[in-house]
Amino acid sequence: MADSIHKLIASCGFVDLPVDEDLNLIAEINRLKQEKNAVILGHYYLSSDLQDLSDFLGDSLALAQKAAGTKADIILFAGVHFMAETAKILNPGKKVLVPDLKAGCSLADAAPGDQFAEFVRNHPDHKVISYINCSAEVKALSDVIVTSSNARKIVDSMPKEQKLIFAPDKNLGNYLNSVTGRDMVLWDGACMVHEKYSLEKILALKADHPEAKLIAHPECERPILLIADFIGSTTALLEHVGQDPAQAFIVATESGILHQMKRKCPGKLFLPAPSLDSTCGCNDCSFMKLNTIKKIYLALLHEQPELILSEELMERAALPIRRMLALSQ
Ligand code: 13P
Ligand code: SF4
Fold first, then answer.
1. With a threshold of 0.90, does the pTM exceed it?
2. DSSP string, 14-62
3. What pLDDT, on the 0 to 100 scale, is given for residue 3?
4. Which amino acid residue places its CA nearest to atom 3 of ligand 1?
5. Would you say 97 and 76 are in contact if contact means Cβ atoms under 8 Å apart?
6. pLDDT along the chain (329 residues), means of 10
7. Cα(64) to centroid of ligand 1, in Å?
8. Distance between CA 258 and CA 264 in Å, rounded?
9. Going edge to edge, which strands form the sheet with 38-43?
């Protein structure tokens, strides 16, 4: 059985076995969690059913903090690969499961480890700040990791004369340069969701809803950020809609977050910011949406696919992540 599961994972990235249609998957997941002392960590970009199923839901920073402190023996990470890698690096002795190994990230993919190593070698007097949306290899080449929640604070904590590299998101890097007055050297990466928003269509939507405020994630391109009323991480955006008296918001980040916004403020209107191509469903991160209830059930049942990293890589990548956690307290 174990062999056939490994073959299945190798061919499609997840355990794909038939499941009895009469099985109550949510009840089974809860039973397996208890039996195996497992916890499900989920990101705000998941579909709403999986957000409701997660034991802990958060942005990248909160998820890393939760992973660092968990007492569970098994962490099932419902998110994308770099998030599960971070959880594994912080818990090398625990089993970290991912519902689908193909749930990657366009930003992380934009910085292959070998090319990034060369880039770092070409900037010998620079410290390296990397956004958490990167591979373990890139983390291991970094001095400190940041998320969109703490990036500004961590960049500001660096001595002014210190030259800096920021990778892999050029949009977040440009935004940080503009608010901190730094001149960080930027790696040329971007998120396939956040770079697809249409300025023209957003302006048209604002004209139709003059009462709506535009809120944006800093992974968006500069023209969108320039007209945004508020810029922040997913958690910051969620907190903001509760605090701002406005009754309507145009939301320029992955549409999964709308589930929590509607829950927090049932009376307010939340409009997903339109993308360049209205037929592509570009507001959804196709990687995040690879997570499904069936895959979570099968992953918990078979304890596969398990995320495996070399001890040596985990040791090197842990240092900049732990630095970030210390600077975020
Ligand atoms: P945060 O949840 O940290 O804001 O990040 C958004 C994101 O793109 C995760 O991949
Ligand atoms: Fe990566 Fe963008 Fe998806 Fe976030 S939304 S996981 S940055 S591809």
1. yes
2. S------TTS-HHHHHHHHHHHHTEEEEEETTS-HHHHHH-SEEE-HHH
3. 82
4. 60
5. yes
6. 84 93 97 98 98 98 96 98 98 97 98 98 98 98 98 98 98 98 98 96 97 98 98 98 98 98 98 89 92 98 98 98 96
7. 12
8. 10
9. 56-58, 38-43, 74-78, 95-97
CATH code, residues 108-186:
3.40.50.10800
- Tell me yes or no: is domain 6-104+288-310 CATH 3.30.70.260: no
Ligand 2 centre to CA of 287 (Å) is 7
Q: Where in the chain is the domain with CATH 3.40.50.10800?
A: 6-104+288-310, 108-186, 199-272
Q: Take atom 10 of ligand 1 and give the residue whose Cα is closest.
A: 133
CA quadruple 298, 65, 193, 116: dihedral sign: negative
Question: Given this model, what pLDDT does residue 1 score?
Answer: 59
DSSP state of 240: H
Architecture of 199-272 per CATH? 3-Layer(aba) Sandwich (3.40)
